[in-house]
Write a structure and sequence with these properties.
mainly beta, 1 helix, Immunoglobulin-like, four-stranded antiparallel beta sheet, elongated
Amino acid sequence: MTLVKWTPNRSLTNYNNIESFLNNFWDNENTYLNKFTPSVDIEETSNNYNFLVELPGLTQKDVKLSVKDNILSITGEKKYTKEKTDDHFRRLESSYGSFERSFKLPDNIDQEKIDADFKNGILNIAVPKTEKAKPREIKVKFN
């Protein structure tokens, strides 16, 4: 068996490895520009399915909502809007780009009564259940 002294930065001592490391680092940084995906919370109540979609920095005109074949689709685009200044970014973590989120809705919904409200960067979509799907209380008769 051969013993080799462990050197923590051994992989970086080779010039090719350093160049590869830096290239991967900068490539990974630039991928943020194309990967905006809004977060969505889904809540079920007795009357509705509620979708809360986080869309920071967007306005109502930047978002499109559609329902077809029980598929709820949310599409839009978050645009990069940096004013021209002498400042230069050293690191940019904000994400931008077009997005689409789609959700399969259950059969027990009323598509005609879907309602959406956009306020403070949050899109709230209320998908009402049909009357058949709503829970109801059954009274038991005792004889």
